Amino acid sequence: MIIAIDGPAATGKSTSAKLVAEKLDFTYLDTGAMYRCVTLLTLRNSVKINSNHHLDSLLKGFQLDIKKNKDEYFFYLNGEDVSKEIRRSDVTKNVSAVSALSIVRKTLVKIQRKIAEDQNCVVEGRDIGTVVFPNADVKFFVVADLVVRAKRRQLDLKILGEEKTIDSLIKEIHDRDRYDSQREVSPLSMAIDAIEVDTTNMSIDEQVDFMVNKIKTLTKEKK
After folding, report:
1. Rounded Cα distance, 153 and 157, in Å
2. How far apart are the first and last CA of the chain?
3. What is the extent of the structural domain holding 205?
4. How far apart are CA 106 and CA 102, in angstroms?
5. Number of structural domains the chain divides into
6. Cβ contacts of residue 105 below 8 Å, gap of 6+?
7. Rounded distance between C-alpha atoms, residue 5 and residue 16, angstroms
8. Which of 102, 106, 107, 121 is deepest in the core (most CB within 10 A)?
């Protein structure tokens, strides 16, 4: 069974997806983190994203591993744990542009489909229900008020030791929403058969309970 959870940044979808997977005893796949890994790789190697030749060479030589330790997921890029580095603001600033590249999406979608093959998965991202797994068993599209999302992002950055104003984060998130929604390749959009979840006034527990109950109800109905 594939559960697709899509939506823009800082809506709570990553945390919810991870907890939904735990409650259902499914594998959790954070595709956004995978794109962050590639973005970090391009920044480290000073690769210009408009150079398909250099990108192709970079993607052929990289190895991405995801490991779970207790309740935490760790991302390894060529054997190095980059779980914290991929959350840096410079990665966040560049990830949309890198994610929009056809060569990058083609490479990662192939990996994502391979990981989800023959196992129950909760897959989270921006085009899971529309492109990666259009036949997913249940689809959610998570949204939230822009100011609330900016406050959530600010808290995340503080944990990493970074300080940003709410106004600057509102602009960053707004710009990223526009970029992700208007890109030519796999734009951010809500699947026709997705269930919208507005998390503006919902706690993480409420989000998770809502999704788990929906999944159980829909699964019963299909039987």
Report:
1. 6
2. 13
3. 2-212
4. 6
5. 1
6. 99, 185, 186
7. 9
8. 121
Instruction: Compute φ and ψ for 78, nearest 5 degrees.
Output: 50, 40
Q: Give the residue from 17, 78, 10, 11 showing the smallest Cα distance to 44.
A: 78
Euclidean distance between CA atoms 14 and 123, whole angstroms:
9
Asked whether the CA dihedral 23, 28, 31, 34 is positive or negative, the reply is positive
pLDDT tens figures, 41-87: 999 999 888 877 888 888 888 899 988 887 788 999 999 999 999 99
Amino acid at 64: L
Distance CA 19, CA 28 (A): 9
Amino acid identity for residue 140 in this structure: F
Q: How far from the centroid of its chain's Cα atoms is residue 58's Cα?
A: 22
- Whole-structure pTM value: 0.87
For tokens 């990493």, name the residue: 160
**Domain at 164, CATH number:** 3.40.50.300
Please check whether residue 73 lies inside any domain of the structure: yes
**C-alpha distances in Å from residue 28, one per residue of 25, 53, 184:** 9, 32, 27
| 223 falls within a domain | no
